[in-house]
Design brief:
- The protein is α/β, with parallel strands linked by helices.
- It has a single domain, classed as Oxidized Rhodanese, domain 1, CATH 3.40.250.10.
- The protein is 35% helix and 16% strand.
- The protein has a five-stranded parallel β-sheet with strand order 1-5-4-2-3.
- The radius of gyration is 13 Å and the shape is globular.
Length: 112
């Protein structure tokens, strides 16, 4: 049996996985107005406020790695923990959120 994935994943690892076309799902759990300001193109927006109602959209990915990001990492950590309680064993939160992404990965992105 393999050890469970850590609940958090760093931005660089997420970027490397995107570049390698790895099989995982990237979810943005910020609200629509935040998403309109700045976003990671590969991410699907499912606001935290809508997560319980829209979680079924992720059912097909239940066995895959699901990485959730928000602004700084607080909301995404709560969403990742909730997803794990729903049976998404590979749910992870991107530590530092899109703010850290804008500092470390893509400095052209606006910060707020």
């Amino acid at each position: 049996m393999t050890a469970p994935l850590p609940i958090e994943i760093d931005c660089r690892t997420v970027k490397d996985q995107l570049d390698a076309a790895a099989e995982f799902v990237l979810i943005d759990c910020r609200e629509s107005d935040e998403h309109a300001l700045v976003r990671i193109e590969a991410a699907t927006l499912i606001p935290m406020s809508e997560f319980a109602q829209r979680a079924a959209e992720l059912d097909a990915h239940r066995s895959r790695q699901v990485v959730v990001h928000c602004h700084h990492g607080g909301r995404s950590l709560r969403v990742a923990q909730w997803l794990r309680q729903q049976g998404f064993e590979k749910a992870q939160s991107m530590s530092g959120g899109i703010d850290h992404w804008a500092v470390e990965i893509d400095t052209s992105l606006p910060r707020y």
